[in-house]
Amino acid sequence: MTHFPEFSARETVKKVKSGQLSATESLETSLKRIREADNKIHAFLTVMESKARIQAEDIDHRARRGELLGRLAGVTVAVKDNMSTRGVPTTCSSRMLEGYVPQYDATVVERLRKEDAIIVGKTNMDEFAMGTTTESSHFGPTKNPWNLDYVSGGSSGGSAAAVAAGEVGVALGSDTGGSVRCPASFCSVVGLKPTYGLVSRYGLIAYANSLDQIGPIARDIGDCALLLDAVAGHDPLDSTSSPDPVRNHLESLEEPVDGLRVGVPEEFFGEGVDPRVSREVSKAIMRLEDEGVTTSKISLPSLRYSLAAYYVLAMSEASSNLARYDGLRYGFSHPQPKDDWESYYSRNRRAGFGAEVRRRIILGTYALSAGYYDRYYLKALQIRSLLRNDFEKAFKTCDVLVGPTMPVIPLKLGERIDDPLALYMCDILTVPANLVGCPAISVPCSMVNHLPVGVQVFAPFFREDLLLRIGRVVAQPLEGGLAV
Amino acid sequence: MNSSRGVQLGLKIGLEVHCQITSLKSKLFCGCSADYRRDPPNTHLCPVCLGLPGSLPVLNEQAVAASTMVALALGCEIQNLNYPYRKNYYYPDMPKNFQISQYDQAGAVPFAVKGKVSIRSANKDVAITRIQMEEDPGKLYYLGTIDSSPYTLVDYNRAGIGLLEIVTEPTLESPQEARLFLQKLRSILEHLGVSDGGLEGAMRCDANVSIAGGRRVEVKNISSFKEVERALGFEISRQRSLLAKGIRVPMETRHWDDIRRVTVSLRTKEEEHDYRYFPEADLVPISMSKEYILAVKAMMPELPDARRDRLMKQYNLPEYNASVLTRDKGLADFFEKSVQIYNRPKEVSNWVMTDLQRWLREEDVEIGESKVTSDMLVEMLSLIDNGTISGKIAKSVLREMVKTGKKPREIIHEQSLLRIDSVAQIETVVEEVFRDSPQAVEDALTDEKTVNFLVGQVMRHTERKADPEMTNRLVRRKLAQLCQKT
Amino acid sequence: MGSTEEQNCITLKQVEHVAGLARIELSEEEKQLLTIQLNTILDYFRILDEADTEKVQPLLSVLGLRNVWRRDETRPSLTVEEVLSNAPRKERDYIRAPRIM
């Protein structure tokens, strides 16, 4: 295991700014590591070698001239392949967008560049972000860097694996029902889903637009905070982005946690959660108690409806968000096209979308169709309301809520691939945060059978600082044992 | 067809009018320039209006202001909280295969509801169901007609342009009423400065037509007012003939082909109307406060009915004149500007309402597009005043002005239209005519009709330039002279 | 069609209809498999019916933002080359689409 970056992203920035390290050196470390590890884990779809070199040279040039450098100076970043990058293929791991080269950058990508990060490449994901294991990628799954027979989690599997394997300093993923936190948990890294509206969605290819958020993935809490601060903040191009100024998350990181009140939802430790996972997370909670937090049992009664509500909303929104993919203006176009427009569309979409995407679009269309709207979509929005009330009630007596990130230990590749519903059930602990809109983080907790287990923290709106503080204390980063 | 006939048939017409908010500089949800008409295809696009993956809409604040003004002008109830919704359907002119629009059922709330448009000439108030904001799709081009074209060409320049959808209750009872309604609506929108109905494609409508005993048929693609009466007329005939054959009119959507002048069936499946409306989560709700509405109200320009009443008062015009003028904002503006320079309102209004409108129609141009200005009209009227040309000549001069844009003096000079009022000149012609028609001259001594014939001949010989009164006098004088001789 | 069980079933015909609405062509096998899979999932969704949502307001916009508007100003557009760069079929500067009827 050579070429693993020895220092954090924050350290990289310090060294690049002080001239101890060049951006080019930082990039070379990353590229070497990718060459070494990626043919085994397959985290990357596109490595932007020449573009990255140009970026690095530019940073070094300005550094030599003594110019002020950005917050992420010289940090190597991977970007999930559902974020628009000008001139670089953006596929959403789908045949539908294979070869699609966007003509604009997502706002977060612009901000990364502005802060002098080096964007190294685009990472693998579940097709159109629909999945929990990155197995639905048209280009093949991403393997877990801790054990190559296991999944990396999803849908941001590529980003999490790239960070875990040390291929890049940090990465951006997206989270609609747990897609940053799940792979973070399975790959033993830190993954944060911000408050809905904290990070701009402009340029994020939508899966479910009332639930999607872009989130940072890093090897430690500090790097997570660094990346969050660099990309968060109001964007006039996103009507749903919060107009409020962004907290400085790095600053409050070191604050002690004693006196904080931790709520432990009983539903998070009930049946449906692997008892080994429950055990490890309970140990983590005891570690918190050692640091002076008080814990109390709370209940989130609406949790039992949440998974169904999530899927109804996500599938319904997806059925509309993915309607634009018809092969006319961009995207997959069948080599033997039909000559009437309806058949042309139907054939392109059938061939361009994988089975899981087709399934969700069709079910989502059904849920929105005449006669079913009240029963499904509207009902799901009402349950969302109920769940928010549960959380608001909980946050009156607790500062944060803590539980496992995933109800299972990492799945073996192919383990649930033929059972869609069984796969959906893996999301039960992560979807509440998306439904409510509140921020949540997954940090490494421990291992079961040598497979990573993550602990999840929820906080009220715009209290990512609490997530990071608690996360810092409860995290148990794993030392060594990578399979690459 | 008139309304009473319509009532007999149990005719119900409802209109869904789509008006572009042409006062906007940019599109509804992005900064692309809205001035696309003269530009090559696919040059007014950005990630948002092209619907590129990852793009997001942001609402144009002036669209909200425009919608507020229209809602106020139509006497609608503006909703405190209204929501953008998605209307989901697939079509090649739709970049996202959904349209961001509004809705009025299942918890959705459109911008405004329940208004009315008064049409005095038809003695009718047309009830407005709702007003909502939405985006325009792109444009499709065919080789030949829609049903014979082997493929389609798409220009998305228009995609994302801001529209106001104004929907009437299905209470219109004839194609004529429909046209009058649209005319009034257009005048209101133009007076508000919100929409220039004369621009190509700026006002389009779909109609829902049913006759007692038949189902409702939607007719789409009616692109101008002239087409409305024709399209509705055709569709009503078509439905009547089906019913006459004992066939029940099926519920469907039909496309108006303005070249062949027929409606063509597009889709017959009921499920095509399942738009699966649900809230647009990329946009946030619109909250209309009393303060905002009052601020917009304070800035509202004069509406056609108010202007009609003012014209009647201010210029002492008959109601009829004032109504005709305010039916068309361009015409009313032209009138007032002309009266500013030449203070004879009744005279000016007559010229504007009759001859000017007539020549404009003949040239198929609107007053705004034509080259005739108020100054030019006034110049012409002054030339009649000081006797340079006759009123009759002026009509052709005006026609020429509309056709060519040339000034009156220029036209008169070019065509030597000057009124002939010198006694010597007319007398010469009178003598010529008398020489050419000896029998008539003899008859004229006793028969009044033949006198008029001779006058007419003189007028003809002078191409109507001779002053008619003087000609009459001189002909009679000459006849009198002849009488004396004999 | 009395019991709640049957009310939840999505039939093959419905799957065909919805796939048509979604403009996704399906083979016969796919339709059969999908009908089974969707029934399983819809069966799970029945849990929604158990929630008491009488008088509960639906929640869509979690931040409660209102009136997010932009000024009516123009910004540069993409060039026609950029617009057409990913289009599989074009003619002159138009996107070429199949026939309508």
In words, what does this structure look like?
- The complex is a heterotrimer of chains A (484), B (486) and C (101).
- Chain A is of the alpha/beta class.
- In chain A, 38% of the residues lie in helices and 14% in strands.
- Chain A is built from 15 helices and 13 strands.
- In chain A, helix 5 (157-164) packs parallel to helix 6 (181-187) and helix 7 (221-231) runs antiparallel to helix 15 (464-474).
- Chain A is globular.
- Chain A starts with 8 loop residues before the first helix and ends in a 10-residue tail after the last helix.
- The mean pLDDT of chain B is 91.
- Chain B is elongated.
- In chain B, helix 5 links the parallel strand 13 and strand 14.
- In chain B, the strands form four sheets. A nine-stranded mixed β-sheet of chain B has the order 3-7-8-11-1-12-13-14-15.
- Chain B has helices spanning 3-9, 47-50, 61-73, 175-192, 225-244, 290-298, 304-315, 319-326, 329-341, 345-363, 374-385, 391-404, 408-414, 423-436, 438-444, 448-461, 468-485; strands at residues 12-20, 59-60, 77-78, 81-82, 85-88, 98-101, 112-119, 124-135, 139-142, 151-155, 162-168, 203-210, 217-222, 252-257, 262-267, 278-279, 286-287.
- Chain C is mainly alpha-helical and 101 residues long.
- Chain C has a domain at 1-51: Histone, subunit A.
- Chain C has helices at 4-8, 12-21, 28-45, 80-84, and strands spanning 69-70, 90-91, 94-98.
- The longest helix of chain C is centred in the middle third of the chain and has 18 residues, at 28-45.
- Chains A and C meet through helix 9, helix 10, helix 11, helix 12 and helix 13 of A and helix 2, helix 3 and strand 3 of C.
- Strand 2 of chain B pairs parallel with strand 1 (69-70) of chain C, so a sheet runs across the interface.
